Amino acid sequence: MPSTTRQRFVIREVPEPAGAPAPLPEPAVADLRLETVMAALSDPLRLQVVRKLLLDREEFDHPCGWFGFDRPKSSLTHHFRALREAGLIRQRQYGLERRSHVRVEDLNARFPGLLELVMAWTPDQD
Question: What is the pTM assigned to this prediction?
Answer without folding.
Answer: 0.86
